[in-house]
Each structure stands twice: as structure tokens, then as C-alpha cells.
Write a structure and sequence with these properties.
The complex is a heterodimer of chains A (about 170) and B (about 160).
Chain A (H helix, E strand, L loop, with lengths): L8 H17 L2 H6 L2 E5 L2 E6 L6 E3 L4 E2 L1 H26 L18 E9 L8 E10 L3 E9 L6 E10 L7
Antiparallel strand pairs in A: 1-2, 2-6, 3-4, 5-8, 6-7, 7-8
Helix pairs in contact in A: 1-3
Chain B lengths: L12 H13 L2 H5 L3 E6 L2 E6 L6 E3 L4 E2 L1 H17 L10 E8 L9 E10 L3 E9 L8 E8 L9
Antiparallel strand pairs in B: 1-2, 2-6, 3-4, 5-8, 6-7, 7-8
Classes of the chains: A alpha+beta (about 170), B alpha+beta (about 160).
Chain lengths: ~170, ~160
């Protein structure tokens, strides 16, 4: 039995990073909030670097509840899109040279999103990871957790349902 | 401990509205989204924000990201709680669920209206809806539970 020689690691990384960068940089709202994505293999971690404009309660001060909700929703949508994109990226079915936001598959649409606020968001960086609990042909259910200083002390979590993008006209 | 100073005579509704408006519009993130308080009082609030290219969530269609609508809904729900006649000293979101019924039309202002329909000693229950400039089906609806912070040293 012979199998094809594995691709050089830098080629694999370059392709994955380019796909992720295109997915994230194409959404103006992600840039507005300043959210960044860190990749380890297929695992994504979102970072929301602290900024004064994210404050919702100047007295405490604390992050705006809407910012927390938005951060979690962005993380859920990118995670879901990333899992949809992953196989095409791995199989080399995506042409990196023609990658731009208008040529990426359509993004899933949020049906509903429920945020559970566990403690107030401190005026410092926040992190989030999402898990796709179910991903069918039409619907998906995604859970997200966000924390700040300690991974085990979440400050918010959320569950959202999404309509999958229509692949036939994507 | 010093005694709580006697509160000043009750302001007129107009000046209370002005105070609440200034308070909400001074929140850094509300300013970043250019939110405007259109009405507030009696446990209800109406807050709107203009269409902004920086808030786009889908570059193909130009539709505003759901997260920005969430921020508007959360602010509006919190404002409704603060304006309740039982006047909590402060409030924070416990949970908020948003249903997205349709995409907001690009270019149009989004207006949220929230109502605090029940309040207990510790929890305020709120529902809200958001419309763009087209009447009829809302863009989104929300339901949430908020904390009721009592004034420190208060009798309640």
C-alpha cells in the first residue's frame, strides 16, 4: 500500500490561514468590534481585545451586554462557516487565488440566539469558543462559551440556531 | 453612616426623559452605534440607530449583523427596566433571547421598542421588537430577564 506524500506543513497552514482570513476579513462588523480569530488545526478561538467603545456601564465599568451578545454570535457564525468550509479547504477545492468575500460560500443565517449572562464583562480582553452541536442539511445548533481571565470562569454562554446557506446557489 | 439626603422634588416628565436620554446616549457603546432615545418612561422605551456600513454582517447583501441588532435590543430593554415606575437603581441582563424574523433592509434605520411587562423585587421581565422603516413584520423580537438593583441603604 502506498499513499501520497503529505503536503509540506507550510503549504497546509498557508491554505487554512488564507481561508480563515478571507472569511473573517469580509465581514465589516467583525472589524468594527475588533474581533480576531486564532487557529490551532481546525479549532478556533475568538478574541475581543478591550476597547473603550465596548463599554456599556461606565460606572463599573463593564462591557455592554450587546457587545457580549454580538461577540458570541460572531464566534458561532464563524465557527459554523469554518466547519462548512473546512472539507473544501482540505481537499484543495477552494482556489486561493480567487478567494475574496464575494466568492466564499454564503454565511448561515441566525434563526434565534439566547445569551446567558453569568457575570459582568470586565474592561479587558475576552475570549470565546463555539461548538457545533448539530449541523444538518438545513439547520444547525451551536453553543458558545466566553471567558476572560480564567477559562473555567465563563462570563457568558449562548446557544443559537441557524439556517444553513443554500449550497446550490452559494 | 450618614442619612440619605432628601431627594429633590420630582422632576417634570420632560426633564426626566431628558435625563434618561442623556444617560443612555452617553454609554460608550450606544454612542459607537449612534443610538438615539426616541421615547422613554413608564417601563417602556423606544431607541433607534441609523444604518451604518461598519455594522454590515453579510458583505454580499449589505444586511446589518444580528449582533448590532442585539446591542440595540439589549440597550432598549435595559432602558425600559430603568424607566419602570418602581425605579430600580440599576439593572443588568440575566438572559436575552432574540428571534430574527427577517433581514433588515439595507440603508434603513432600525427602531427597537421594549416593554417591561412585569417586575418583582429582584427580576424584571421584558419583551421587545425591532422594525426597519417598513411597517408590518418586525425584523426581530426579543424576550429577556433583567436584575433589579435596589438603592444601597434603601428600605426595600
Amino acid at each position: 500500500m502506498s499513499r501520497p506524500k503529505p503536503e509540506p506543513v507550510q503549504i497546509v497552514k498557508q491554505r487554512r490561514d488564507a481561508a480563515l482570513r478571507t472569511l473573517v476579513s469580509g465581514v465589516p462588523y467583525i472589524q468594527f468590534l475588533g474581533i480576531e480569530f486564532d487557529r490551532r488545526g481546525d479549532e478556533l478561538t475568538a478574541t475581543l481585545p478591550f476597547d473603550e467603545k465596548l463599554i456599556g456601564n461606565p460606572m463599573l465599568p463593564a462591557l455592554h451586554g450587546g457587545v457580549t451578545a454580538a461577540f458570541l454570535e460572531v464566534t458561532a457564525i464563524i465557527e459554523l462557516s469554518w466547519t462548512l468550509l473546512w472539507e473544501d479547504v482540505e481537499a484543495g477545492r477552494i482556489d486561493l487565488s480567487s478567494l475574496d468575500p464575494t466568492h466564499l460560500p454564503r454565511l448561515p443565517k441566525t434563526i434565534d440566539f439566547t445569551v446567558d449572562y453569568l457575570r459582568s464583562g470586565l474592561p479587558r480582553d475576552a475570549y470565546a469558543r463555539a461548538r457545533v452541536n448539530r449541523s444538518g442539511r438545513r439547520y444547525a445548533s451551536v453553543h458558545v462559551e466566553a471567558w476572560q481571565d480564567n477559562r473555567t470562569r465563563m462570563f457568558a454562554q449562548a446557544t443559537g440556531h441557524f439556517v444553513m446557506p443554500d449550497l446550490s446557489n452559494g | 453612616m450618614s442619612a440619605t439626603p432628601t431627594p429633590p422634588p420630582t422632576d417634570s416628565d420632560a426633564s426626566k426623559l431628558e435625563l434618561a436620554r442623556r444617560f443612555i446616549e452617553a454609554i460608550p457603546h450606544s454612542r459607537a452605534l449612534s443610538m438615539r432615545v426616541d421615547a422613554i418612561g413608564g417601563g417602556a422605551a423606544t431607541i433607534s440607530m441609523p444604518y451604518d456600513l461598519r455594522l454590515v454582517g453579510d458583505p454580499r447583501s449589505g444586511v446589518i449583523h444580528g449582533g448590532a441588532v442585539s446591542a440595540l435590543m439589549d440597550t432598549c430593554c435595559g432602558a425600559a427596566v430603568m424607566s419602570h415606575p418602581e425605579a430600580p437603581a440599576g439593572t443588568a441582563t440575566i438572559d436575552l433571547r432574540i428571534d430574527y424574523m427577517r433581514a433588515a433592509t439595507p440603508g434603513q434605520r432600525i427602531t427597537a421598542r421594549a416593554e417591561c411587562y412585569h417586575i418583582t423585587r429582584s427580576v424584571a421581565f421584558v419583551r421587545a421588537s425591532a422594525h426597519d422603516e417598513e411597517a408590518g413584520l418586525p425584523v426581530a423580537s426579543a424576550t429577556g430577564a433583567f436584575t433589579v438593583e435596589r438603592p444601597k441603604g434603601g428600605t426595600q
